[in-house]
Amino acid sequence: MLRAAVIVSLAVAASAVTSAQPLPTLGPLDASGRVTYFIEDGEPGSTYTPADRELALWALKAWERVSNGRIRFESSPRIEALVQVHWVPAGGGQYGEMRPMRVGSRRGAAVYIRPDTNGLGPDIAAAAKKDPLLRETIVYLTCVHEIGHALGLPHTDDFRDIMYFFGFGGDIPAFFSRYRIGLRTRADIAGSHGLSEADIERLRTLYAAR
């Protein structure tokens, strides 16, 4: 039940995107690699909390940190933001989703996060209620995954990657627990990006040094 719920919720959202299908990168960007972003308040019924904004910011900064200066996220008004993060109610069997969009003449992305773990089935909902850091892990890693798509990274078939596609199977609870067991406090998330070496290399290849 847990396995099926997580697979549907996190993988189906972008099921059309497989490891063989490239995604557009953001931009074009200027020489500094500046990427504007906007994190919206949660919609009614989304179970969003103000602290979730920090999880999304940490996810953005995780990608920035490993880029070796090739991308730099900067907050901006929504109308100017290349990456827009939205918190929406559970529904449609989806927990995370990325949709390409245009911001003026440039390529951007809208990221939709559904932070209600009740939408993942009773097993994971009960576990997240008992362990708040599990809930934070799921929301954070979903943000990292979907922002990865926003940056142009496709799904992979390597279980070690944050961009792994759950449609390939694997031990899905272990996907989250390997990150969760490294946390002692919520603040630890800010310094633990959760990315594989392959994730990092793909990002650096997409955004070559200017």
Q: What does this protein structure show overall?
A:
It is a single chain. By secondary structure, the protein is α/β, with parallel strands linked by helices. The protein is 35% helix and 15% strand. The protein has 6 helices and 5 strands, in the order αβαββββαααα. It has helices spanning 2-11, 52-66, 122-130, 132-151, 172-180, 197-206, and strands at 34-39, 72-75, 83-87, 96-103, 106-113. A hairpin with a 2-residue loop joins strand 4 (96-103) and strand 5 (106-113). Helix 2 crosses helix 4 and helix 3 (122-130) crosses helix 4. It starts with a helix and ends with a helix.
Shape: globular
CATH architecture: 3-Layer(aba) Sandwich
Radius of gyration: 16 Å
| Major sheet summary line | 5 strands, mixed
Helix content: 25-40%
Mean pLDDT: 88
Uncertain runs are: 1-20
Question: What oligomerization state is this entry in?
Answer: single chain
Number of helices: 6
Percent strand equals 5-15%
Measure the end-to-end span.
47 Å
| Main structural class | alpha/beta
Helix-strand sequence: HEHEEEEHHHH
What is the number of strand segments? 5
Task: Present the secondary structure layout.
Layout: H1 2-11, E1 34-39, H2 52-66, E2 72-75, E3 83-87, E4 96-103, E5 106-113, H3 122-130, H4 132-151, H5 172-180, H6 197-206
Parallel strand pairs: 1-2, 1-3, 3-5
Antiparallel strand pairs: 4-5
Helix pairs in contact: 2-4, 3-4, 4-5
